Amino acid sequence: KVKKENMEFQTEVNQLLHLMIHSLYSNKEIFVRELVSNASDACDKLRFEAISDDSLYEGDSELRIEVEFDEEANTVTIRDNGIGMTREDVINNIGTIAKSGTKEFLSKLSGDAAKDSNLIGQFGVGFYSSFIVADKVTLTTRRAGDKPEQAVVWESNGENGFTLEDTTKEAHGTEIVLHLKEDEKEFANDYRLRSIISTYSDHIPLPVKMRKRDEEGKLTEEWEVVNKANALWTEPKSNLKDEDYQEFYKHIAHDWENPLAWSHNSVEGKLEYKSLLYIPSKAPFDLWEPEQKNGIKLYVQRVFIMDDTKNLMPHYLRFVRGVIDSNDLPLNVSREILQSNHVVESMRKASVKKVLGLLEKMAKNDKENYQKFWNEFGRALKEGPGEDMANKEQIAKLLRFSSTHTDSEEQTVTLEDYVSRMKEEQEEIYYITAETFASAKNSPHLEVFRKKEIEVLLLSDRVDEWLVNGLQEFDGKKLQSVAKGELDLSKFDTEEDKKEQEEVDKKADGIIKHLKEVLGEKVEDVRVSHRLTSSPSCIVLNEQDMALYMQTLMKQAGH
Ligand code: ADP
Ligand code: MG
């Protein structure tokens, strides 16, 4: 009995498809990358599950991806013998349930087709990119281990929902047939497909196969591997070009842009592993969400285990992408084991050092790129001193700030720069925190510092309070807020300053007495300040008091 049903796409999926069909017309060929990438994920999953249940291979353990085309029928087919999907999987994964990334993706669209199509891979909406070139997509799939009759066909034109129908499929895995639009015929072409595959999929560790040609150039029944199919990280560095590293990055990070830097390592000795770590050039959409979708891909002896976002990198380096391939972990490693395993702990420690080293090198040799990095990821790195005490010093040197030295909102000042400009008598690093850059820069607390030409760091990122708390000091110099506590700046006074102050004190005697009487219990003390130059007065907090703006907020709330 064949059961066929019509189903509706979820609202956001519909919006997304509309976009794919009507406005994403640049970089069309990414559909190949996305579908091959899904096929490769499906093979990784099968290989992982088969570790504990060999029968899932059904006698066919040679995992592969096949790409075929039919010029006459104007179709392109992408097939894998990976894990496959049950009927329920299909409903959940493609169509009825919008994944967390979908909404976000839609909200990020700029209307610039080139930019927007770069977002597709990142947001985990890769499958739908089929509809950029196809006006009908037929997906046939069977979950490995299920019976041939448990297979299902999903079909859609991307506009009026989709149909699901039971079918029979001998081989496990998934086959996707793209019925190309009339004006996308160019993709049903041997040369075109091969070159797209070698551009995007050379270094995925799985063979991508196409039909072989005979001497006259006619297609035969035989298959040949068209990508290099080597696990890039296992290659010696000398074999690899920058482009190889860049394409591999795009594959694992689902990014369209080149990474800023990478570090490729082969570690031998007590522990044996290979790692390839990348610094992206753009922040992923979920950098500021509580959970991230992608992280470091963990392999054990070249078998993909999982995408790890918690154990292999600390949170403040959550933007790092890459692969760590261990020879010491057991193949059946679980998430629970990862959380408390000394092999993982050591690999993580060493990898953090690699990343910090990479950033240090960039900061020294490639200031322009480092600034790009900072503008994109600086606020994440500022979480570092509080989270990673062991590397506090090293992270501190990587930090960049706005300060009264430049008065510019762009954060370019290092703590080392600051220290080198400190006054002879100066023992502390002064900073001010505020909600916005403008209010930090224009704070009355700064007047006396400006007058005395003492530099003050201008902190206005939300993470900054947390940063100064975690950092406490740099190079033996305490970080000191200019808005908190008794600030004794008299050591910076010139003779002239002192004379002037005495006069002011004398003149103010009367008014201070008066103010104390009027304000009474409302304040702790009233005193003459030499902090200010042109503002008449300001409130000063005790060291333990909460930040000034909190008080302002409470006052506004009527306290
Ligand atoms: P992502 O790959 O980021 O999850 P996609 O839109 O590319 O997003 O794919 C959606 C989901 O559909 C995948 O997560 C997977 O569960 C399923 N899927 C897609 N292609 C395949 C395939 N070839 N084999 C098995 N499952 C697949
Ligand atoms: Mg995908």
UniProtKB/TrEMBL annotation:
ATP binds at residues 34, 38, 80, 85, 93, 99-101, 122-127, 174, 335. InterPro entries: HATPase_C_sf, HATPase_dom, HSP90_C, Hsp90_fam, Hsp90_N, Ribosomal_Su5_D2-typ_SF. Residues 1-335 are annotated as: A. It is found in: Cytoplasm. Gene3D superfamilies: 3.30.230.80, 3.40.50.11260, Heat shock protein 90, C-terminal domain, Histidine kinase-like ATPase, C-terminal domain. Keywords: ATP-binding, Chaperone, Cytoplasm, Nucleotide-binding, Stress response. The keyword Cytoplasm applies. GO terms for cellular component: cytoplasm. One of its GO terms (molecular function) is ATP binding. SMART domains: HATPase_c (SM00387). Residues 27-184 form the Histidine kinase/HSP90-like ATPase domain. Belongs to the heat shock protein 90 family. HAMAP family: HSP90 (MF_00505). Homodimer. NCBIfam families: PRK05218.1. Molecular chaperone. Has ATPase activity. This is Chaperone protein HtpG. It comes from Cocleimonas flava.
